[in-house]
């Protein structure tokens, strides 16, 4: 780990001013940043610690029935907040399917949004990586790329965004509140992360030094609470990143789908909302046929970026699974293995 | 800037001067405070061997910067027993043979204490396994670990039930 100056600002304004100095990085819990610094992947000259900055750790109800979640709210605190889990169950399920209990106790909302890719070549300073070192090349193109992107990738970078939390959030129209030296602005989460194009090192619309202060869920997003699920396929049962994942949130009226909100995870450099698939479902009767059509529409543009063509069909099937579970209704309590396609509906033991 | 921090470690208040902000909570415990019960497995958040409670919550001390936890209360495996009497989770691990080499055990025990405090798993073994999935055991003592956690949880609940009755 490189040496750095440690700064502990006492206000948002102080934090934003401190981080405007080139070479600075915000420190939230550090569960991603310290890992990357230990590997020499990130080498910030200054860490601006958010631990003491007031006003970042509240979960507030909004007049429209929505919720404003401070950037430093811990992943576990949000997932177990009864009001939150009741109104946004797919988001709680996604949170509880991520990392481990220890990491969720530490990891913050802002850090989860801004966590970096898990591409192994990005993590290895001896490999060529355009994201780590613009212009260096991309060793993933000819390397181990089973888990890389099938949507929105470029010749320069085929990495995915690893967050679970962001997948149902983007489906539900979450908005990111950002504070910078020029003041406050808001960006829909759907436009927050950038696709790699020719500049994979630029991963979000944040300007250097800008701070995420909160994420907002609009009140209408709670209208999907009765039929909202997240499904995440992993290479082991728990404590693993998604191979592919899907959030499906439905509003049913008279047995038909009045509105659908769908997004995929593990497929692109951003949480991938699929409006074309949402449109297919509008007015349709929930069922295998409609769900398969929606899945075809969701992956229509998908292309393998290496030896990962299997992820395209897998993503279709996981989306169908998420839709089937959502249509059946959000369970009273999350299953024992949140988001697991292996879990039975009632959360009964897998192991006999 | 002074990098002096205060921590309460196993109920003992300490003031610690840090010459370098890079020190993790794990290295501080092991290298500076000689509390070597907390283990360093991967040092990258992937194994759980370094699990301690910070302000009552289980976290990976290898991915926590010590200087950022100024003022925190830390509980490690060394602070769990009451004198010579092991904590109910420690006793249950012994009773259920919930370890072999023992390297992961301090992290498993601290994680189990955290899990029981969180109160989310109930008596469902599947929920206990999922709640303990952040602690790897290379010896594969998982069966005993799950049984130990369930038993310790029942024992810890008993006095409360008696009071309620
Ligand atoms: C072993 C392991 C397994 C994991 N598994 C999963 C998983 O299955 N699913 C999943 O979704 N995640 C997983 N994670 C990732 C985990 O969710 C992230 O590490 C965590 O969310 C990051 O939050 P943090 O508060 O620790 O952020 P930090 O590590 O402190 O920061 C991460 C980045 O965000 C920036 N940042 C932080 N807060 C702000 C802010 N408010 N404004 C602007 N920039 C900010 C930092 O500068 C840094 O670049 C895993 C991590 C580990 C180590
Ligand atoms: S896929 Fe992206 S992150 Fe991975 S090596 Fe290529 S450029 Fe780097
Ligand atoms: S040493 Fe901290 S998780 Fe492995
Ligand atoms: S007892 Fe050996 S690693 Fe768990």
From TrEMBL, chain A:
Presence of the UniProt keyword Flavoprotein in the record: yes
Keywords recorded for this protein, A-Z: FAD, Flavoprotein
Source species: uncultured Craurococcus sp
Pfam families per the UniProt record, alphabetical: CO_deh_flav_C, FAD_binding_5
Top-rank taxon: Bacteria
Residues of the FAD-binding PCMH-type domain: 1-222
UniProt name for this protein: Periplasmic aromatic aldehyde oxidoreductase, FAD binding subunit YagS
Molecular function GO labels: FAD binding; oxidoreductase activity
InterPro entries named among the record's database cross-references: CO_DH_flav_C, CO_DH_flav_C_dom_sf, Diverse_Substr_Oxidored, FAD-bd_PCMH, FAD-bd_PCMH-like_sf, FAD-bd_PCMH_sub1, FAD-bd_PCMH_sub2, Mopterin_DH_FAD-bd
Signal sequence, start to end: none
UniProt key word Flavoprotein: yes
SMART domains, per database record: CO_deh_flav_C
